[in-house]
Amino acid sequence: MKRLKIGVASLLLLSCGSVNAEMKSKNLGQGWRALVNQSDPFDTSKVEIVQITKGAFTFRCRELNMEAPSYGYESLSFRANLKYIVDDNNPVDKSGGYSTYLGGSDLVTDSRYYHFSLTSADIAAFKKGNSAKVAGKYSKTGWFTKSLNLVGFTTAYSQMCK
C-alpha cells in the first residue's frame, strides 16, 4: 500500500508539472532596464521586451510614461497637457493623461504617471537627442517636469520595438 501511495504521488507530480515562463528584468546598459517576457516556454534565451525604463521614465512601443508624485492609493485617470523638449530644439505639445498606472490605466495603485502616445517624429527626436525634458500638467497647480538622459535610448527602444 505504501508503494502505491508513493507511486500515485510521483505520478501526480509528473502530470502536474509545468514550465514557468516568467516576466523578468534585464539590464540593457547605460541605465536602461527592460521588463522581458519569455516568448518560448522551453527556451529561456527567447524573450520579448515589454517595456524599457530609465529613472522616472517607462517606454512601451509608441508610448511614454513619466512617474509623478503620489498621494496614496486611488483609482484615477485624467486628461493632461504635456510638453517635451529634446536638447535645444523647440518644445513639442502633446495631449495625454495623468493616471494611477502606465498608459492611462486607472488601476488602484499608489503610483502616478503622466503619459502620451509617441508618433514617428517623437521617436526620431528621442533617438537623435542626448537629453530630454518632459513636463505634465493635469490641473491648475502647475507643471511637473523631469529630465532624461537619452544615451542608449536608440538601442534599447530598437530592441523593444522591432
In terms of topology, how is this protein built?
Elements: H1 2-16, E1 23-29, E2 32-38, E3 47-54, E4 57-60, E5 63-68, E6 77-86, E7 92-99, E8 112-117, H2 120-128, E9 131-137, E10 144-149, H3 153-160
Antiparallel strand pairs: 1-2, 2-3, 3-4, 4-5, 5-8, 6-7, 6-9, 7-8, 9-10
Commentary on this structure:
With 162 residues, this protein is α+β, with helices and mostly antiparallel strands. The protein is 20% helix and 43% strand. It has a ten-stranded antiparallel sheet with strand order 1-2-3-4-5-8-7-6-9-10, covered by helices on one side. The longest helix is centred in the N-terminal third of the chain and has 15 residues, at 2-16. The termini are far apart.
As a percent range, the share of helical residues equals 10-25%
- The total of beta strands comes to 10
Number of helical segments? 3
Average pLDDT level = 89
Topology as H/E string? HEEEEEEEEHEEH
The major β-sheet equals: 10 strands, antiparallel
Separation of termini? 58 Å
Range of strand content: 35-45%
Strand order of the largest sheet: 1-2-3-4-5-8-7-6-9-10
Q: Which class do the helix and strand fractions yield? A: alpha+beta
Poorly predicted runs of 5 or more residues: 1-19
